[in-house]
Amino acid sequence: MIVRPYGDTTGDGMVQLSFTLPIPHDKRAEGAALQLAGKMGMDPAMLVHAKQMGDGFTFFVVYGKVGHLVDTDKVQVVERDFPLLSAKEVNAAIKRRLRRRLNVVGACIGTDAHTVGIDAILNLKGIAGEKGLEYYSELSVTNMGAQVSVPELVETAREKKADAVLVSQVVTQRDAHLHNTRAMSAAFREALPAGKRPLLIVGGPRFDELMTGELGVDRIFSRGTTPREVASYLVHALTENRA
Amino acid sequence: MIVRPYGDTTGDGMVQLSFTLPIPHDKRAEGAALQLAGKMGMDPAMLVHAKQMGDGFTFFVVYGKVGHLVDTDKVQVVERDFPLLSAKEVNAAIKRRLRRRLNVVGACIGTDAHTVGIDAILNLKGIAGEKGLEYYSELSVTNMGAQVSVPELVETAREKKADAVLVSQVVTQRDAHLHNTRAMSAAFREALPAGKRPLLIVGGPRFDELMTGELGVDRIFSRGTTPREVASYLVHALTENRA
Amino acid sequence: MAGKLDLDPRTVARARALAAKAGQPVVDLARSHTTVSVERAVLRLAGVHGADADGIPWVNRLVDAVRADVGLGHGVAVPVFHAATTTGVEDLTVLAQKAAAGSVRFDVPEKKAEIATARRLARRAAGAGLKIVDRRRAERDRLIKRFGDPKQRPWIYLIVATGDIYEDIPQAQAAARAGADIIAVIRSTGQSLLDYVPEGATREGFAGTYATQENFRLMRAALDETSKELGRYIRLTNYASGLCMPEIAALAGMERLDMMLNDSMYGILFRDINPIRTFVDQRFSRQVHARAGIIINTGEDNYLTTADAVEAAHTVTVSQLLNEFFAHEAGLQDWQLGLGHAFEINPDLPDSFRLELAHALLARELFPEAPLKWMPPTKHMTGDVFRGNLLDGFFNLAGALTGQGILLVGMMTEAVVTPWLSDRDIALQNVKYVLNGAGNLHEDFTPGPFIRGRADQVLNEAIDLLERIVDDTLMDAIADGTFGLMKRPADRGKGLDGVARQEEDYYNPVEEML
Amino acid sequence: MAGKLDLDPRTVARARALAAKAGQPVVDLARSHTTVSVERAVLRLAGVHGADADGIPWVNRLVDAVRADVGLGHGVAVPVFHAATTTGVEDLTVLAQKAAAGSVRFDVPEKKAEIATARRLARRAAGAGLKIVDRRRAERDRLIKRFGDPKQRPWIYLIVATGDIYEDIPQAQAAARAGADIIAVIRSTGQSLLDYVPEGATREGFAGTYATQENFRLMRAALDETSKELGRYIRLTNYASGLCMPEIAALAGMERLDMMLNDSMYGILFRDINPIRTFVDQRFSRQVHARAGIIINTGEDNYLTTADAVEAAHTVTVSQLLNEFFAHEAGLQDWQLGLGHAFEINPDLPDSFRLELAHALLARELFPEAPLKWMPPTKHMTGDVFRGNLLDGFFNLAGALTGQGILLVGMMTEAVVTPWLSDRDIALQNVKYVLNGAGNLHEDFTPGPFIRGRADQVLNEAIDLLERIVDDTLMDAIADGTFGLMKRPADRGKGLDGVARQEEDYYNPVEEML
Ligand code: B12
Ligand code: B12
Ligand SMILES: Cc1ncc(COP(=O)(O)O)c(C=O)c1O
Ligand SMILES: Cc1ncc(COP(=O)(O)O)c(C=O)c1O
């Protein structure tokens, strides 16, 4: 399906945009703002607000119409390609197919100390009314907490014979999450031969789920992930594909 | 000068964008939103908020980096190409060069009833501490008020021997301001021969000052215009260029 | 909620008495005149409908024909029904068509019996129209009973204005689902100056959608569906003000609109409609609204878009008192008085929010039984939509703190565009946050000397102004720019030629039955 | 401002007494231990500066060397100054270099006279450091006198965090010009777990800029300029918490920082630093802050990012009481206690805003002389930046209504990015609107039963919890997840190996002089 942005009429293509340019406010600056809007495909673009901040910066708000068409058929998304199981089904599947508990090691790596997200996935308490992975009797969970270094993580994963390693990254400034994830997957590739490597899962609110290849991980989870989704994926990836 | 948008670091290119797509919220919709952001030149783009509204619409907020460069030297603006005069100077110039009072007719045309803007320019009271054109002893001002039809305006302009006609347009939905302005300038072209035609000035908060040619007017004034600017322009255009 | 300001009841009583004194001459004027639109409204209730090929409604054609033949001063009812009898054309719409074709002439019968017959027929026909209005009112009562009123006060009022009724409908339904209690379909700019009501479903309005009987019907039907779906009766609002106030009031009654913008002076001040025309039209339209159980919304908020909200605060109070007087006189009950006021003080002014509270609370306590309509900031909104949403939040808070009845939801894009779908959603979210999180804050709100002092000051300034108006007449005050800085002399403005002094034998079957 | 809740003074006194009882064992522990960072702080005050080629500061090298030779338990001052005497290397930085190269050995002199000499020299050297601190404090007093304090309360506190000190500086100056009274430069993530303080001007932090003496100096100098330009003394804040609390406190004192984040338990709970290490470090660092006239900011707000703000409200109160007790014990005055709390209740909760008012007012009235630090919503912020700006507005209002001392300005992009330049501008505009328009609304704010009841409830829950802590010990409470749901046993956590029990002859010239 082809769609356009919608302001108040089908097809009107209206969007709102704001940004700062590192120049003082004058007519030329307003023109510069409109030039940017134009390059982004806004035509006509209405500059509705401009405010100088300090000496050399100006903030702009622009409204206008974009000509771009959005083709929903061309959208690439990581659709859930596995069934969403209940805790019971997860446990049953692991028991039946793996005949042992599945080992999961989780951590926030690098200097990131945002544990709420990974705790929501791992800890009993869970999130949004769903219990975390610790609740699943057939999962054995080790939560290493925050600011774990990559060598520590690899070591613990080896020690615990981890089937899956779950890593959380919340801080994205200067692409810290991408750097850390790449460092982590590289370390696992270096430390363990292909067959022995645990499933690498990374999660956090600002990840693009399409980047698995680039980051060298098996799966990425983003905003609003629930423990059940992760557990179901583990079953799918570790008991169906591999076992 | 070449600049880029500025989030918190020089050259980071960061902008904020929001819009609605006429599709329900799901992963595909989020992908569609990112597709649009991509087409606008945002890369990487972070989808930070998505909310379904009613059955078939979703609102998105996207942050991200644009690659576009803004070249401030290429910006086209209507710079003030005439000196900003005081009321005294305006009056003196008219007296000296025209030797009669200059006739100005103003109106909100079409169905537009927003008179605050044109009143700010014409009425004694003025705006932002500046008196309006009525204050200028050498200007004779006729303010026709709101919802004036184009034939009425042409008639009055003829009757008052208007040197300049000042038209205000505030409502822009469905480009009403553009349609009305074009109709107005066409009517003057039809009714009066080139030499007899008054100076046509149009104003309103959402006009693009570069559109004079397209709209068939002599000058466009936009947000934040002050009476002095208009008076100075009148002197410039009517006593220097023509007289 | 009342009683936080400790207003002196004697001062309040004095203000009301002055308003009555100032308003009475205008009522007398209204009672002694009629207008083309009043007469067309009578014919609409009597069953004339449809329009000619140019879109001019048959009621216009018919009234114009009668007027050409005998003038308006007798009312059109008797000439029209007399002609119907004499020509044997009982269907008035057909009669109108014939009149337009010049094949019918109208006169005022001389014979008592003929007059009596014409009047009886007129009464019966117009009565049928009023019966529809009554049925609609009963229907509304039933639906409210079934679906229920909004759970919270203030009721949440949202504007839809795409210009296309078929875009408006889904947007209105979405807004209701998202929490709106009242949907207002704004009219196309300029409709208020049309001296006729357009016909049919329309798709081409500018910054608003034409008010037509069919558009009313379509939207009401859609909202009935949504009311059912939501288990909450969604009210529908439109605009009466303008050259066709009486007719639109009649159509609103027949299509079960629930609220109507109807101000005694808005048309004069903001549309440059002739004062007498407006006062006559507003009286009749309000009588119809009274019958239809419609809540009116007055337009004091508009004054503050042109005048300064602090300097002119007392003009709002004066206008509310006048609107109340005129409304009561036309038969409206207190619960039908959605008196308007607005959050329009310059936000840069120190204590601006507390001044807003003082003004809003004054209105609340002067009109304790009226469902005041609280209007959002517009004048000081800019293209800075982030700031706009913040201002709207404080507007919502002021509404909750001072117990307003109807909250017109402010839009962050006020200074930019007519509301987008997403603007409404953001705005409703704003309202919900404020009402849910701070809706009961009035329990902790006990105005101190600053707020009480300001309310007293405004009330006293209002009394001073009313005294001046009583001395000079309201017509002169309007001519002098007292309200919204607009100067509107009684002998100027649009639509004056549609006004006529009532003759001795003036007859209006609708007014008789109201 | 005080007195709106009618708190029972006996209940309040009981809460304080319980906090003292719960805190005393921890104070005893802190007085009987030292840490590598305390000792390094002593050496920094005594004049050691600079770092080796790997960026490891000479103070670290020196303390490590002393420790390797004689342990920490005697304090490093005597061994170091003894070595300086015996080797004749009076410049301690040179001594550190030699020690790192292995060419100096340390021991604890046995002779009384030698001890006395070493102590005297240590006192003199450290005294010189404290004199710098004293001079800086006097300088601050002078500048405040010259430029003035902010005109309004709360003071407006803004964060800068580009990671690059040279981007931070213009941003901080712009923020001050736009209205900020306090600039906080957030540290790079992870610095708090470094067991050394980086050196020099830095440009590569993640989501924050390294806290270094040079960065402190550069920013303070820039803000002095801006203070002059604005005629208002702009305060500078940084973070003490972490493995280097005492050293950073010393550097802050020497570079005239004005406020420091310094919480008695933050490092334990949120950085998994060993509890004993933290308690020892915080005590010493607070003694230094007391001397430097620095206002501390505690971190109770953080609990509400992990625990629920309603359920855990009383843990905030308990922690504030403990922070107060520890602060007083370390010599801080009430005006230096920027106790933390936050607007973190789920905005969807009915009456959420009034609950916030109850909590904020409780803190206000429990600590009437302290410049409470009021933290904005973070947990319930989402990518919906329009809603975010609204929430921040209500946060600002709550701050004004309850008389908070320091307002950390909330950012609409809280859930998205570290603040952009424009975010700060929008946020400041928000603060200004609220303080200007509604800053005096407290005059009209008289808490009703709901707010008063909630405050009472939280206070009583706090007392219950304090009673449990007195019974079980604070260490056990921390181990049990009482605060912020974090479980931190006393024998775990980072930095434990840097703790040593003080020997009989422990000597610390700085502590002696504080
Ligand atoms: C709580 C919080 C804190 C707490 C953290 C407490 C704790 N123990 O976690 C405290 C107060 C300590 C803190 C500190 C800091 N914070 Co903080 N913090 C937040 C906050 C308010 C909420 C984050 C949160 O808990 N979200 C709720 C959880 C449930 O959501 P989530 O993390 O997205 O997780 C979900 C999914 O993403 C996914 N998921 C996440 N991880 C994983 C992993 C796997 C394997 C899977 C499958 C799924 C998954 O599933 C989860 C459940 O659905 C955000 C702002 C915000 N509102 O988002 C800022 C925020 C994340 N913090 C930020 C910053 C910068 C910091 C500091 C670095 C500031 C400083 N320099 O001092 C410090 C230092 C922290 C550090 N070293 O990392 C920035 C990050 C900016 C950026 N994009 O780079 C934010 C966005 C605030 C801001 N705008 O500046 N913070
Ligand atoms: C005040 C106001 C009204 C008042 C008007 C009173 C009056 N007598 O003017 C009332 C309440 C009557 C009103 C009604 C309506 N309004 Co109105 N109104 C506004 C409001 C709040 C402020 C406009 C204003 O006065 N600005 C202040 C003046 C000084 O600024 P200005 O007009 O830009 O003028 C300056 C410059 O532009 C320039 N300028 C302007 N004209 C000219 C002319 C010349 C020759 C020159 C040289 C310069 C110049 O100089 C001026 C001084 O600097 C705006 C929202 C907003 N905050 O902007 C909506 C707004 C303009 N209204 C709007 C609408 C839709 C309406 C209605 C049509 C709604 C309806 N359907 O009922 C009605 C009908 C009006 C009609 N038929 O036109 C929309 C327009 C949307 C759009 N972009 O198309 C707005 C933006 C609100 C919204 N978001 O929906 N409105
Ligand atoms: C009382 C009243 N009537 C009518 C209107 C709108 O009328 P029009 O359709 O003329 O713009 C308003 C607008 O604010 C109003 O307040
Ligand atoms: C008391 C206290 N100290 C320190 C910090 C930040 O420390 P870090 O640099 O470890 O993130 C905070 C953060 O909110 C805090 O509240």
TrEMBL record, chains A, B:
It comes from the Bacteria. One of its GO terms (molecular function) is protein dimerization activity. Residues 101-243 form the B12-binding domain. SUPFAM superfamilies: Cobalamin (vitamin B12)-binding domain, D-lysine 5,6-aminomutase beta subunit KamE, N-terminal domain. This is Beta-lysine 5,6-aminomutase beta subunit. It comes from Actinoplanes regularis. The lineage of its organism: Bacteria, Bacillati, Actinomycetota, Actinomycetes, Micromonosporales.
Automatic annotation (TrEMBL), chains C, D:
Residues 5-512 form the D-Lysine 5,6-aminomutase alpha subunit domain. GO terms for molecular function: catalytic activity; cobalamin binding. Pfam families: Lys-AminoMut_A. This is Beta-lysine 5,6-aminomutase alpha subunit /D-lysine 5,6-aminomutase alpha subunit. It comes from Actinoplanes regularis.
